[in-house]
Amino acid sequence: MWLQACLNGSRTSAEHIEPDLSRRLRLMSAWKVLPDFVSVNLSEPGIEQVIAILVKRGVGLEAGIWTAADARFLLTLTDVPWLRLLFEPWESDPEQANRMVDDIEDVLGDALPQVPRLVHGTDEAVWSLLERAMRDGHVSRIGLEDTLLLPSGEIATDNAALVIAAKVLINTRVA
């Protein structure tokens, strides 16, 4: 079993995240209990130092790729042993989110073929990108962090309702 620590999520630095990079790096270096892996968003300031500490400490890394620029940056990180590439455009419009994933894939091309790719969206783009992930043979994710709405537009009562809706969508497309 893997346990992923979602260190930032949609929270702001005022809510709980250490805004001072040097202090954050010292805190990470002092972690007593290490997660199996951490998602690192490549567009965040100081990410090179964060990655260096996590690699040194033996923590697995998932690359959070929001844009084509992030994908270009990823290609410069040749010594990082990525566990997974997480395509997560923060555009909630389905068409724009799909274009952003197209741009990311264009940049990456055939690079890192051994590294699994997870594609997911936010808000209205969630269901379109889930279908894209299925079509392209990638994994996806679903949860209240990503959307509050079911494919029908109804508000999901909980994470379980979203998972059930995703499984129905997957089973419908596979059948």
In brief:
The protein has 175 residues and is an alpha/beta fold. The chain contains six helices and five strands. 41% of the residues lie in helices and 13% in strands.
List the helices and strands and how they pair.
Elements: E1 4-5, H1 21-29, E2 37-41, H2 47-57, E3 60-65, H3 68-76, E4 82-87, H4 94-108, E5 117-119, H5 126-136, H6 159-174
Parallel strand pairs: 1-2, 2-3, 3-4, 4-5
Helix pairs in contact: 3-4, 4-5, 5-6
Describe the structure.
The chain is of the alpha/beta class. The chain has one domain (4-142): Aldolase class I (TIM Barrel). Helices cover 41% and strands 13% of the residues. The chain contains six helices and five strands. The protein has a five-stranded parallel sheet. Helix 3 packs parallel to helix 4, helix 4 (94-108) packs parallel to helix 5 and helix 5 (126-136) crosses helix 6. The radius of gyration is 17 Å and the shape is globular.
Give, in spatial order, the strands making up the sheet with the most strands. Answer: 1-2-3-4-5
What is the C-alpha radius of gyration, as a whole number of Å?
17 Å
- Main pleated-sheet profile: 5 strands, parallel
Number of strands: 5
Indicate the mean pLDDT.
90
Features:
alpha/beta, globular, TIM Barrel, 5-stranded parallel sheet, 175 residues, 13% strand, 6 helices
